[in-house]
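Fold it.
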Amino acid sequence: PGVPQELTTVRVQDPRVQNEGSWNSYVDYKIFLHTNSKAFTAKTSCVRRRYREFVWLRRQLQRNAGLVPVPELPGKSAFFVGSTDEFIERRRRGLQRFLER
């Protein structure tokens, strides 16, 4: 029998507005990871992170990536046309693509 293939699934879900209605409101997302990789002690993990923490992560990856291209993050738009829900969903999908890559 062959060696089972290592699989890692990551999902960005459940966006929530924190401090709604105040000047310092922001959206955070639930990041859910499931893996059968031996490199991970925990096979599932779940954390909440906001956009600026993805920006930090990308910066760290760029610093250590050498010539390997680091995926783009979805844009940070102060002037979004459309509904806030649409913007949050578009960003959620973009963050998931970033983590998958």
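The first helix runs from residue 51 to 64.
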